[in-house]
Specification:
Length: 250
């Protein structure tokens, strides 16, 4: 459990609040239970250190107010729209025997022991957080999902996650899905056997050779036709010369 120091604040105007923030502090309020609301002030630096650890809104924090500790749960944070820094926080006082509704983060472990993920499957996370109704003295930090032995097609439902005693989901009446191990989105085509590749290559070679042979035959046929035409022309020229010859002699 995280602990943070706080002091009682006596701010009554916007100017008092602005002065408080200018000194590096964040105003906050603690409410709930039978006690009166407590106006407190926190160090912004210490507060941000706790917030950076993660899951701030689902973890109980011990606030030490002038030597007196009080367990609280962060409920709402107000952020500065320009600097994105926290400028106010509401804390819910933890009362023994009470119950709170929280969104608890889900953590997945043993990814490397999942046969489905090893074969290229994908972990499809449906819910990264699950809303639970928890006793104030038994709030889980996270829900753990063990992926060991899960194959493609496996579905992780809320019933398969071990919850702490008296902790129940706010969704009732159905066993909702938290995550699945899905098939890979891209499936590689199987490589063709070497024999098929060789046969295809042989067929292509045969077709190529046949084409070349046909081309050669066509060239020879063309040469024959060209030679025939040339012979016919010579014969015609000879006959014409024979007709003219007697006339020239006379």
């Amino acid at each position: 459990m995280n602990t943070i120091e706080a002091t009682i604040r006596n701010t009554s105007t916007k100017g008092d609040i602005s002065s408080l923030r200018a000194k590096g502090n964040v105003p906050a309020i603690i409410y709930g239970g039978s006690e009166q609301n407590s106006k407190i002030s926190l160090s912004k630096k210490n507060l941000k250190n706790i917030m950076e650890k993660g899951n701030f809104l689902s973890n109980i924090i011990s606030v030490n107010i002038d030597g007196k500790s009080e367990n609280v749960l962060p409920k709402e944070i107000v952020w500065d729209p320009i600097t994105d820094e926290p400028i106010h926080i509401d804390f819910l006082r933890i009362v023994k025997g009470g119950k709170v509704i929280l969104e608890i983060p889900v953590k997945f472990i043993n990814n490397d022991l999942s046969p489905g993920l090893k074969r290229g499957g994908v972990l499809n996370i449906v819910r990264r957080k699950v809303e639970l109704k928890c006793p104030t003295e038994n709030i889980p930090n996270e829900l753990v999902v063990d992926l060991n032995n899960l194959d493609i097609g496996a579905s992780i439902k809320i019933s398969s996650i071990k919850l702490p005693e008296n902790v129940v989901p706010t969704i009732i009446g159905r066993d909702f899905v938290v995550a699945t191990v899905a098939a890979p989105t891209i499936i590689k085509e199987p490589e063709k056997p070497a024999e098929e590749t060789s046969e295809e290559g042989a067929e292509a070679t045969t077709e190529g050779e046949t084409g070349e042979a046909k081309t050669a035959e066509g060239d020879k046929e063309g040469e024959k036709k060209e030679a025939g035409k040339e012979g016919e022309k010579k014969e015609a020229d000879k006959k014409e010369a024979d007709k003219k010859a007697p006339a020239e002699k006379k």
